[in-house]
Each structure stands twice: as structure tokens, then as C-alpha cells.
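Hi team,

As requested, here is the filled-out complex form for the zinc ion run. I kept the field names the same as last time so the parser does not choke. Let me know if anything looks off before we queue the next batch.

— J.
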Amino acid sequence: MDAVPPLTVDTVVDLVNEYSAATRAAADEASHGYPVLPALGDLGSDTDRCRRAADALHAVFADGRGPVPVVNDLLVATGVRPRLDECGATTWVVPDRRRILLAAGTVSLTTWIAAHGPDRLGTCEAHRCADVFVDTSRAATRRYCSQTCLDRARVARWRSRQAASRDQGRSGTAAR
Ligand SMILES: [Zn+2]
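And here is what came back:
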């Protein structure tokens, strides 16, 4: 049994957004290199392992059924389980060291969902972006991964409104 190191949910989000096939393809970055994520430490040393873990964890945010069934499947698949240490604190252990990164991501999302509920994980609605996010806003209405995507979507909406009103103006002239 290997102890699973703690990962913050922000690190899991970074792993998914930088390494999953879905997010890279949406951003036209499938052929780009993979950045080193310092927060992963030794867990991030194997690029293939990062990619496989990121693909599996992406489904937690993107699956139409919501995150719960996907997380439960990952808990079973990784075999990760809680154990009490000498001081009575909960630690997590995994039977197969090759699954330790996926297990760490799964534990991070499990504890986050347990604290914040299952309705605050999502994928960006911006054009050409499939990045994932956790919604920490009070109203839980987040739809975009970042301020950049929110701004891009606002500009796109404004442009399409402008185009629509121009078209209306033109058809109005033609009708006269
Ligand atoms: Zn985005």
C-alpha cells in the first residue's frame, strides 16, 4: 500500500486542462508540448500517466450524469481507500503505485464534492474551450473557465447582436 499525497482541487483542474485530450483538442493545442506542473511534484514526472489520469478525471466534470457516478467508478478502479494513521487522522492509500496520480485526483475531487456538493463542477461554455472548473461563487452560476473566456463570450454576444440589428436595418430599408 502506498500513501496517496494530497492534491488541491486547483491542481487537479490544472492537470485536466493541460493534459486531457478533450481540453487540448478544443483549444487546437493537441500538438503542443505538455507543461510541467510543479504542484504535482514527483507525481507529474510521467507524461503518459498524467494524460491518462487527466482523461479519466475530465469525465468527472463533463459526464452528463454529473460527477458522482464517475467519482464512484474511479474510487473502485483505483482501489484507493482510507486508513487511520497512528494519530487517528485519515490518510488514503492505494494498492498499485501506478495508479497513485489518478487516486490522488480522485481523492481530491471526492473530498471537494463532499464539502461543496455535486453541482459545482463544470466545463467552459466558451467557443473553442472545454476547460474544466470548480465553481466557488456564492450563486453557483459559473459558466466559463476563466475571465478571458467570459470576456470572449461577452464580445461574441455583443458582435452577434450588432450584426443582427444591422441585418434588421437592411431588411427594413429593402421593405420600403
Ligand atoms: Zn474557457
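Two things worth flagging: Residues 34 and 47 are 8 Å apart (CA to CA). The mean pLDDT is 93.

Thanks,
J.
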